[in-house]
Specification:
It comes from Methylobacterium radiodurans. Belongs to the DNA/RNA non-specific endonuclease family. Its cofactor is Mg(2+). Keywords: Endonuclease, Hydrolase, Magnesium, Metal-binding, Nuclease. With 373 residues, the protein is α+β, with helices and mostly antiparallel strands. It has 2 domains: 30 residues; 238 residues, Extracellular Endonuclease, subunit A (Extracellular Endonuclease, Chain A, 3-Layer(aba) Sandwich), CATH 3.40.570. 27% of the residues lie in helices and 22% in strands. The chain is built from 10 helices and 16 strands. The strands form 5 sheets. The chain has a 7-stranded antiparallel β-sheet with strand order 5-6-7-10-13-14-15. Helix 3 crosses helix 6. It is globular and about 55 Å long.
């Protein structure tokens, strides 16, 4: 059963109080207002002197000297003043724009995480690191906003040797109120679609992590098993051919309202998969509607930013972002276009039971064989 979640009007970005000019006694300065701790009293000569002017000599004929406040470090009160000053400087640095940091920079091009250019997307977000990918989860949509990977020829080869184990599970690192649950997808008519694909995972551990619901979005069943599967395979083959690709896969929510599973999990209207080839210095993205029978399009990174509100590769030059790289035709590798022509059948509890029983049996057999050999 699907409900509709109405998205409010776009939020206006907050205005940073920076670059404000102030005229002093010497020159105009740009600054960010931060309340600094009060200084210790300076000598009378220093108080009479301007902030950039030497103190007036006390006696005619004495050498010109710059007024200097006494060193406060030698007293307990002075140490407290220095501590407060250090805190103020830290706040000042935090207020200035800087590149976002991540605990797992190896998954991102140049170690830089995607930048959210639509401020609505930033609410209740939490970054998560995994063995072979990283993602940004949204508690507002209860889905990931994007997942980032570094695909190499070697990792794709290793992934093809890993047996698939559909071990979907809830992500306990997320607050309970912000995460999706397994029952959200039962009888929903949607697939549990990966952003970082299970087929990209080079080890059993990494593949098991990819089945975290933090990496899952509701996908149209025919789209997920047809066109989207073809896009995923196209990217893997391109990574094998090129050697290394950085990949960011994400969701787009457009329109005045979007579908929601059980009034909780928002259904993306579109999905994208952006690629960057560091050897050739080119980038581009697949963009496709989350519905059966839809056509995909190739877009530039700049064009994707305008659609999705995310700059997926913020470190690239503007010229690279404006030019879309040639992308392979994905339908060549889709798991049969008949999946898109068939109307998906509503899953019954018997279907779910048989699927889970089969999964548990296959896992038990594999674990037994590993224990023996």
């Amino acid at each position: 059963m699907r409900n509709h979640a109405v998205l409010g009007p776009p939020l206006e970005p907050s205005l940073a109080e920076s670059g404000i000019g102030r005229t002093g006694s010497c020159r105009r300065q740009s600054h960010i207002r931060v309340r600094l701790p009060r200084r210790l009293p300076a000598p009378d000569s220093a108080r009479r002197a301007g902030p950039c002017r030497p103190a007036v000599p006390q006696q005619p004929g004495t050498p010109l000297r710059l007024a200097r406040a006494p060193d406060p470090a030698g007293t307990a009160e002075g140490a407290d003043v220095l501590l407060r000053r250090a805190i103020a400087v830290a706040l000042l640095l935090a207020a200035t724009p800087a590149a976002a940091e991540t605990a797992c920079p190896e998954h991102f091009a140049d170690g830089r995480v995607p930048a959210l250019t639509n401020p609505k997307l930033a609410a209740r977000t939490l970054p998560l690191c995994f063995e072979a990918f990283a993602l940004l989860h949204s508690g507002a949509s209860r889905t990931p906003l994007y997942a980032a990977e570094r695909l190499t020829r070697e990792s794709v080869t290793a992934a093809r040797a890993v047996a698939r184990d559909d071990s979907f599970h809830e992500e306990d690192r997320l607050p309970a109120v912000d995460r999706s649950e397994l029952e959200d997808y039962v009888h929903s008519g949607f697939d549990r679609g990966h952003l970082a694909p299970a087929g990209d995972m080079p080890t059993p551990t990494a593949q098991g992590q990819s089945f975290s619901l933090a990496n899952i979005v509701p996908q149209n069943r025919a789209f997920n098993r047809g066109l989207w599967a073809g896009i995923e395979e196209s990217v893997r083959r391109l990574a094998s051919e090129r050697g290394t690709l950085y990949v960011v896969t994400g969701v787009v929510f457009t329109g005045g309202s979007v579908d929601a599973l059980k009034s909780r999990v928002l259904v993306p209207t579109q999905l994208y998969k952006a690629l960057y080839d560091p050897a050739r210095g080119e980038a581009g993205a697949y963009l496709a509607p989350n519905r059966a029978g839809a056509a995909w399009q190739a877009v530039s990174i700049a064009g994707l930013n305008g659609t999705a509100g995310v700059d997926v590769f913020p470190g690239l030059p503007d010229a690279v972002k404006r030019q879309a790289m040639p992308l392979p035709e994905p339908r060549e590798f889709a798991r049969g276009d008949e999946a898109e022509r068939r109307s998906p059948r509503e899953e019954t509890w018997q279907d779910w039971l048989w699927r889970e029983a089969g999964r548990a049996l296959r896992k038990a057999i594999r674990d037994t064989l590993r224990a023996i050999f």
